[in-house]
Every structure is written in C-alpha cells, then in structure tokens.
C-alpha cells in the first residue's frame, strides 16, 4: 500500500480529490460517504414503528434498501412507512407468534423475490422492579423471554429458510449491554438479551457455511420512549426530563458532550447489513462508549 501511495504522489505533486479517489478505488475502498450501501437489498425489520427500529428503517431506505417494517402498533407503523416513501411498507407482526414472523419473511419474498436482511429488533423491557430473586415474577419472565429471545430465534429460523437456498443473507438481532454485563438493569431483561447473544453465537457457524451471516448489536441506554418507559418503572416520581438526564448524563460513558442516539445504532446496523461486513459473523457489536470494558475497583475505605 505504501508503494501505491508513492505512485500516486509521484504522478500528482499535490494529489487532488480525483487522484486520491483513484488510489482509494484501486485499493477497493468506497469514497462515497453518502453512497447507497444497501442498494437493491430487501429487509424486514421487526419493532420498526418507533425508536431504534424506526431510525434503522429510515437509514436502510436512505441507503437504497426496500424495507418491510413490522410492529403491533399499526397506526404508528403505517405512518412511518408512508413517511419513508415507496421503498417502505408496513405489515403487522406479533413476534411472539412464530407464524406471524414466518409470514413477514414470506411477504418480503412474495413482494421482492428474496430477503437479504432480517433485523430482529422488537422487544419489551419486562418488569424492571425486582427486590430480590425471590420476588421474580416467572409469568413476566416468560413473556419477556418470548418477546425478546424466542422471537429472535424464530426470526433467525425463518430468515435462514429463505436465505440458505440462495447462499446469501444477513441476520441482525438487537441485544443489549444488559446482556453483556450483569447488574446494568433488571435480571429478566438482561437474561433475555444474553440469550439473544447466545442464539447469534449458536447459529452463526452453521449458517455462515451457507453464506448467511448472523450478528448482534448491543446498544447502551438511549433516551427513547422504550428506554425511558423502563426507567420510569424504577423512578416513578421522576419527570421525563429527569429520566432523560439520567440516561444522557448519568449513564453516559463518553465525555465531550457525546450522547448515544438512535441514529448511531441504525448506522451500526447498516454496516453489519452491508457488503463491507461480508466477513463479520457471530459478532456482538457493542455500542456503549466503553461501558462494558471496565469496572472500577471496590476500594476499601481508608483506616481511621
């Protein structure tokens, strides 16, 4: 590569944009920051009516994909699809029902001839308040696992059904930093997201041999309606502004005024779905400002 740089510099004493573009193109890299990185691809996104799912749908369409948004919030979902234009459509899908997940996959194939990207994003917080393991509500646990973990497995299963014959495809599952590091939030939610990461790792090897990649994204706390709703269970007296400040300041690991936003997760999904990530498989892409890579030591109080 160094010799290639020298060659460009010799031909262009002051390399302009065209010369640099020729060199970068020669190396196989893209120079277009606004290029349509998903051009021609067909995607299904569950839980796409608001928050991260909505932002991801918008980013996918902006990058050239045709997207089927699914959710159980029909009015919101239809409105988002209408806003995104002719490359977006809405379909109802309760992800706790395997048949509806299968139908969403089949709809993509029926409309567009194939499915390139399956993004299993839909989820619930479950019950956030838990005094001790003895007070764990197993009915709530089952509901949370069904929506967060079992649905991801159903999405992997049915996406693989149509992707494996084509020997091509990308499956993305939304996990969480709560599934990476214990104690971040209520155990039920953390267990469900740890299971999502486990499912990605369990299926990536088999599906990778058929040209289908399976990856996860683990966001840290974001001040979405979903995130603030979960936090409100823990702090019922706090105002929405106070809850937002807890997320954007109290939970923030980055300095310099940097705040995690839904668009950051959407762009991470675009990367994993694009051909730029063609050899990324079985990976959990953690977007957390470094939260899960360190823990401060519990230092004893100095002797008096």
UniProtKB/TrEMBL annotation:
Task: Please indicate if the UniProt record lists Oxidoreductase as a keyword.
Answer: yes
Report the domain of life of the source organism: Eukaryota
Cross-referenced Gene3D superfamilies:
NAD(P)-binding Rossmann-like Domain (3.40.50.720)
MF-aspect GO terms: oxidoreductase activity
Tell me yes or no: is Oxidoreductase among this UniProt entry's keywords.
Answer: yes
Sorted UniProt keywords: Oxidoreductase
Give the family from UniProt: Belongs to the short-chain dehydrogenases/reductases (SDR) family.
- UniProt protein name: Ketoreductase domain-containing protein
Q: What is the lineage of its organism?
A: Eukaryota, Viridiplantae, Streptophyta, Embryophyta, Tracheophyta
